Amino acid sequence: MAKMIENAAARAQTPFKNAPLIDFTKPENRQAQAAALEQVKGELGRTYPLVIGGKKIMNEATFASVNPSQPEQVIGYFARATVEQVEEAVQAATSAFESWKRVPARERAGYVFAAADLLSQQRFYYNAWMIYEVGKSWIEADADTAEAIDFLEFYAREMLRLAEEQPLVRIEGENNELVYIPLGVGAVIPPWNFPGAIMIGMTSAAIVTGNTVVLKPASTSPMIAWQFVRILEEVGLPAGVVNFLTGSGSTIGDALIEHPQVRFIAFTGSRDVGLRINQLAAKPHKGQRWIKRTILEMGGKDAVVVDETADLDAAATGIVASAFGFQGQKCSAGSRAIIVDAVYDQVMQKVVEKTKQLTVGDVTQPETYMGPVVDENAMKKISEYIEVGKGEGQLVAGGGHHGPGYFIEPTVFADVDPHARIAQEEIFGPVLAVIKAKDFDDALHIANDTEYGLTGSLYSLDPQRIERAKQEYHVGNLYFNRKSTGALVGVHPFGGFNMSGTDSKAGGRDYLLLFTQAKAISAKK
Ligand code: NDP
User: Fold this and answer.
1) What is the pLDDT of residue 6?
2) Could you tell me the distance, in angstroms and rounded to a whole number, from the CA of residue 217 to the centre of ligand 1?
3) Tell me: the pLDDT tens digits for 95-154?
4) Catalytic residue positions, numbered
5) Span 270-301, pLDDT tens digits
6) Closest Cα to atom 40, ligand 1: which residue?
7) What's residue 1's pLDDT?
8) What integer pLDDT is reported at residue 320 of this predicted model?
9) What's the gap in Å between 161 CA and the centre of ligand 1?
10) Strand locations in 171-246 (E)
């Protein structure tokens, strides 16, 4: 389509820049977000189809996505896909792949840029769905949408770069080139906690490189994925390139992952599901012609380390923001604070004071800092960990929960042993374990002493310790004198070590390579 090629050519002239966050102190922005929330309220409770090969398919069996702030309020009803529909979706993606893989990279990038434009235009509306469906505060929802726009803008430009002539050593008598070609049909399985950014990031990376996908969104955030699928339809993406399959991962997941025509799986979610996917994908099935590629981004037990040279106010602010932003439901959440003995009491006191100032409640109001956790299961699991924590540390803030939504107070446990369950297991909620370290060496050892390795922060003003941490703090995303959350596309390529995943570095220059294979072509002159 000439328009898409023009679109990409024009955009390629402008370098990538992160989308600025919306300033909600401005009255016009507050009004616009409030109006979008009103609009979305009027659209709640509808029923949505599967999309397979461009066809909208309504199933009799549906499930409800609900508002975690008011669980009786239904966001929408979504089809429960069957195993037979997994087959149909994979067939639709397989047949679309035959033409989509031949669409020039510039045209594919053009669709992705067009989706970025539409999402930017509909930003308040998209934020509003996220506020309702997963209980994000205005600022958290907007940061998620901004990141989603960034992924679209960044990956489209990255594809244009990969489509250029690649540098090779030249030899006499031969013409040589290297081109990046797509893999085939991918299963894209995102989590609910960045229901816009991660879902859009994985999907757009897959399609801009020429693959086709079956997108199975998380069952607690299908609406956010539906809104993106609608945008893709509006920009005219050919049918079958993205197939939308809602339903429980435990019911349809295996059929999708094990399907012999699925070439790769892009997954972000929990450690246990990621490991299971890795295992299932490793076993070839009848008719399968490849080793499936898995791109697996998983959990974290991230730490914020504070030494005695640090700016203690900044450290306490960073600890609280890392632990409790979006109710602690971030893979990058700083769920452990490791503080050296010399300043432990001072930092502890500041952390408790700051935690007690946080507001928990109605996220449709702009001032609210924390909303509910995502669903009843999450609330139960987090509450159980709080009970475990009472036996493992000293409860110094929070600990309670209230309904009817799934609201949990920001909770801090002091004097936690580094090997306690609440210091080792990912809780994925607003629970902070504070650990006392003898000194900096001990703190660094404790920080590394988990099976994860996603993000980590160090608050220190000692240049030698900062240098040491660069060598020894074993995490995919290391931050100094700032919080452990808030990676920006292009600026902080994101992904973790050890059980945190395959370190894909989403939002970085290496990411799209995971969705391609390189073909070296030589011709004798
Ligand atoms: P889950 O692992 O529970 O679910 C992730 C996705 O996998 C969902 O779409 C889910 O579908 C699907 N799924 C569940 N079971 C199966 C199965 N057997 N086969 C195939 N798919 C399945 O994670 P959450 O959604 O709860 O997300 C939170 C987790 O994600 C945390 O551990 C967090 O640390 C991690 N995460 C990691 C990031 C990173 O970059 N490293 C970034 C963001 C989150 P359904 O909802 O239907 O069950």
Assistant:
1) 84
2) 9
3) 999 999 999 999 999 999 999 999 999 999 999 999 999 999 999 999 999 999 999 999
4) 297, 331
5) 999 999 999 999 999 999 999 999 999 999 99
6) 297
7) 63
8) 98
9) 31
10) 174-182, 185-189, 212-215, 242-244
Cα–Cα distance measured from residue 111 to residue 102, given in angstroms and rounded to the nearest whole number: 15
Centre of ligand 1 to C-alpha 190, Å, is 6
Q: How many residues does the chain have?
A: 525
Question: 199: part of which helix (H) or strand (E)?
Answer: helix 197-208
Asked if 470 contacts 479 with a C-beta cutoff of 8 angstroms, the reply is no
Report the distance separating Cα 382 and Cα 427, nearest Å. Answer: 6
CB of 428 within 6 A of ligand 1: the answer is yes
Please list, residue by residue across 452-469, b when 16 or more beta carbons sit within 10 angstroms of its beta carbon and e when fewer do.
bbbbbbbbbeeeebeebb
CA–CA distance, 92 with 240 (Å, rounded to integer): 5
Q: Are strands 212-215 and 407-408 parallel, antiparallel or unpaired?
A: unpaired
**pTM for the full model?**
0.98
Q: Is 147 in the pocket of ligand 1 (CB under 6 A)?
A: no
Q: Does residue 262 have its Cβ closer than 6 Å to ligand 1?
A: no
Question: Above 90 in pLDDT, residue 338?
Answer: yes
* C-beta neighbour count of 352 within 10 angstroms: 17
- CA 268, CA 249: separation in Å to the nearest integer? 13
**Ligand 1 pocket, residue 269 CB under 6 Å:** yes
